[in-house]
Structure formats: C-alpha cells, structure tokens
Amino acid sequence: MRIAGAGTRLVGLVVAGGLVAALMSLPLVGGLGLVAERASGSATELSPELRSGIVPEATTVTDSAGAPIAYLYDQFRIPDGSVSAAMRAAIVAIEDRRFFDHGGVDPIGTLRAVVHDASGGAQQGGSTLTQQYVKNYELYVTATTDAERAAAVAPSLARKVTEAELAVQLDHALSKDEILARYLDLVYFGHGAYGVGAAAQAYFGTTPDRLTVAQSALLAGLVQSPAEDDPVAHPDAALTRRGLVLDAMHAQGAIDDAQYTAASAEPLGVGDVGVPRAGCSAAGDAGYFCAYVSSYLQAAGLPPALLAGGGYTVRTTLDRSALGHLVTSLTAQAPPDGSHVADVMSVVAPGADRHPVVAIAANRPFGNGEGESAYDLPVVPENLGAGSVYKIFTAAAALDRGIAGIDTVLDVPASGSTLPNYRGADGRPLPVRNAGTYPAQLSLTDALAQSPNTAFVELEGRTGVAPAVDMAQRLGLTSLDTPGPDGRSVADVARAEDQASFTLGVSPTSDLELANVMATIASHGTWCPPTPIASVTDRDGNAVALAEPPCTQAVDPGLADTLMVGLGRDHLPGGTSAAAAASSGWDRPIAAKTGTTQDQESAAFVGATPQLAGAVITFDDSAAPRPICDGSPPRSCAGGTLFGGTVPARTFYRAMGPILEGRPVAPLPDPDPRYLDAR
User: Fold this and answer.
1) Which residues form the Glycosyl transferase family domain (predicted)?
2) Is 387-506 assigned to CATH 3.40.710.10?
3) Is 468 exposed, middle or buried (0-12, 13-18, 19+ CB in 10 A)?
C-alpha cells in the first residue's frame, strides 16, 4: 500500500508538471512499479559524446626515459585499465544492487526518489548506476559553465525523467560491463581524483586492478559524499561508511565470511592522499623544460585546453641526468638567492633531421612563489643582449660573401677608433672601444678567440649589417623576427637603421636559440627547430602528428664546418674562455665564443662539440639592471667585472663536462678550403 500510494502521488505530480507523456514513455508493468525496457518515442536522444563515453583525461608529460615530469589537466583522471573484481562488486553493492537485473532504471528506487524530491524533501538517491553515469557525464564532461553544471544536478522532475530516458537508451546500447567501466572511469572520489584509476593512485598508491576488498569498499563509499566521508578529514565517518559497503557486499554474497571479517578489521590504510599538482609548477627542476614543451605544442597544434583533457602522452627529449648537471652548475655559479643575477643554460643535440633539446634550466626555481620564476628564463629573449657572441654572425656573413675566410688577416683598429659605419643617432661617428689591448692585425680565427670589437665592427662595415642580421636568423635566432609594439621586429630595425652595434650583441636574445645556433653550425649548417618532443600519442596509443617547421640547409656545409674550426681556439691559451676551461678540466675540442655587453649587465657563452651544443647567459633580471661583479656569489655592483669567460663559461664547462663524460672525444670537422681565405 505504501508503494501504491506513492505511485498515485507521483501521477498527480507528473500531471501537474506537464510531464505525463515523458514519464509514460517508461511503460507501466504490474501494479507496483515501472519497468523501463525501452524509452520508445522519447524526444531525448543520446548525444554522440554520451554514446562514445569519452571523458577528460590528464595529459602525461614524461622525460626521454618515459618517467612522468608533469601532468596537464582540469580533472585528474588517468586510464583505468582493468579493475579488480572487489571494486566492481563494492560499487554495485552500495550504489545499485540490482544493476545487473534492471534495464537502466530501477522502478521502485526511481519512484521513491522522484516523489520525495518533487515534494520538497531532501534530495534522495534511487538513481541507478546508469542514471548516475548520465548525470555525472553532464556534470563533468558536457557542462562548461557554472549554470550548466548547476542544471546537471538540479533536483527537478524534468531532469529525472530525461536522465531515466537516457539511461534506458544506454542500457540498450551498451553491455552492463561497459556501463560499469564507464561509471568507474567518470565518477569523482574526492581529493581531486576523478575515476577509479586516479582514486587508486591518490588514496593507496596502487592501480585499480590491485585494489583489495577493504580498499574497494572505502572508495565505493566515497562516491555518495566524498567530503563528508573523507578518510583524511573524517576517518571515523569513512570507517563507518566503509563498514556499510562491506555489509552490503557480504549480504549480497560478493564476499564470504572470512573476507568480510578480514576487511572489516583492516585500518583505513591511507597516507598522504592527493593527486599530482597540475601543470609545470609541479615539475621541479624540469619546470622550465615543461613550460617550453607546452608552448611548443601549442605552436604545433595542441593548445593547453586540448592537452588538459585529451589524455595524451607526451614523451619529451629531456635527459634527467643532463638536467641535474645543469642545475648543479647553475646554482653553484650563481646561487638562487643572489642579488638579481639570473643564470640560464640550454643544451641541444645537433642532427641532420632533428635538434632535440636535451635540457634547459635556470638558477632560479620554476614557480610563482617567493624566490621562484615562472618567466621562461632560458627560452624567452632577455633584453640585455649576448654581447660578442653575435660576432659569429658577422664572421659567417663574411665567409658566405667571400669577404674573408678563417685565415684571413683582419685589421684591428685601436680601442677608441672611430669607424665609418659606427655612428650615433645624429649620424656622427662614435668611438668603438675594445675590452683589452690587441695586436694591430689578427686572423679571423684569432679574432674570434680574442674578440676585439673594432675588428668586427670594421668587418661588418664590409659585409653590411643586413647580411649579418640575415645570417643570425638563418642560423637560429628566429625570435629576431618577432614584431614589436610598433609592428617592426628587432631584425627590421637593425636593417632599416643600419645598426653597426648588431655585431656587438645588444639585441634581446634567447639562450635556447643561441644553443640551437651552435647546433646548426655543428650539424654542417642544417637548421632544425629546437624540439623538446620525442613523440606524442593519444589516449588510444595512436601517434599524433605535429605541425613542426621542416629542417633547412641554413648555410653551405663547408662554411659551417670551417666556422666550427674558426671557433675552435676560444678555450685554448689566449682565448677568452681559456681560464674557465682549464679550471674545469676541459679536454675536448670545442667551437666556442664568449660575449659581454658594454655595461656588463649581461654576458654569454656558447659552445658546441660534434655531439652536443649549448649556451649560457648570465644577466641582471631586475626591473632596473645594474652591472654584475664576478664573485662567489656574483652580485650587482657599481663597476662590473662580469665577462662571458667568467660565470657563463664556468657554468657551461662544469655542466657539459660531466654530461659528455664517457662519450668518445670527437674532433672538429675538417675545414673546407673554399672558406679559409677571401675569395
């Protein structure tokens, strides 16, 4: 009589709500309930999304060995794989004990819930797992606004009827096992864990297929109220709730007496509960690399919004061992708490068809906290310049145009000389100063090693500024072409204004791009984008193609090989990095160049062996840069003593030495006779 009375009340409520036709699509069978065998004639149809069952999954970013470094997600959900029989039995026992018998809607439970909710009482259960799946799919997948999410769980009769119709359709479209698997993959378990895969990891550090009876009962009990039954915040409530699930499992024959007794006696067994933090701020020392991965993928056609729910696996080129050596050297040379002294390093592997980024790092921790930086230090151009490193581009332009070869003897005007091509804004010649005293003439090779400014400003006067700028872009300084606020790029301005200062490296410079410049030279003149990506696969394991720029032959192979030889004396006695190389025990051939800006607010070092190329920039990253004095630690000061051969070179050699340890000592390539002298 109680159920019959409820049914009479329901009819009245449905009539009042104008939903008779919708409800009657679920045929009445017998006098005591509804048996939903099919939702015939329903205006509500399964959406393609609900039919497919695709849910947001976290994207996993790994290092080159496949170990995770970061997770990108809005909802932390990972593929479930197989789920233990205990977990499946637990969720059915507590949420829908007739799940394998009904047609998507449990008549008695639905009637009870609809009548209670429609009469203004506290919202009750009664929904089957299939109905819960429909509701949760709307809440966690389909809804994109707060209003839509609120509507997905609103206690309305209209929603209940729609939910029931869709549940019946799903029951006809999918097997019970498929519905149960989808439900477990979708539902929220608290502490940021969506789906049983994430929950198993978050609560017990295991996988769904290994969940025990006690663990399964605890997780199944959380579904109804993850906050109130939270085993961390409310362990007594969680224990009580777990007991209810175990009681239900035992009563339904899912577990025997021995299993029930043993599971009931177990402690909750949870420790530090939680899912990995989302994003690159949780990647530790790999944070800068992770940030570059994200920006690179966006440019290649995988924006952050797609990554956050796409369930991709991004295997990167990051070498964890190399990264460790970078961080050790960077923080030793410029401690993170030093006064405004940033030190960054990038390592890129040369190659004919790829330039994999091996590691990038900075002396500052990556993040948004005090003493940390979310600014992508090694990748984004720093504004102070790389100094005489840019003389490489003038030298390469001279070789390319036949104006000079690496054996060509250059005039070295005295410091303070006024050269015709070096002029101020008013057009009058300005004196060009050297950092030391030099012979009146040097070969181009010796000039690259000793770095007199006057020799390269004079050489640039013969090559022209535009060819030097073009060469920089061809070899890898692609950011020079990025438009500024006025629509003109650094390259545009340097060409248009014939800026002879270009060869002195006053332009904003990306450390990673400098490393790739050296990789291009070491790759016999082949430029490739510095890629951090080894592979990307979707949630089904299929390879994902990326829109990456193709490799190009930037300069003639003979020119690149000869330039490598021309840069091969910087680490030898008389070279600007000789002291740093000696103090680090460096014993390999290397093409290298140092650079220091005029006020010594920044300095740089680049180097390449046939196996690896790299770059370091040290600079004042404050809002009001000051000169930097070398020291332990380096610091801001009135009169700078920072040079490319000090902090930057020491950082490079002391990181790259251990990275290359154990690899064969590779010689520099043979020079091409065409580029030894002017043509």
Assistant:
1) 81-250
2) yes
3) buried
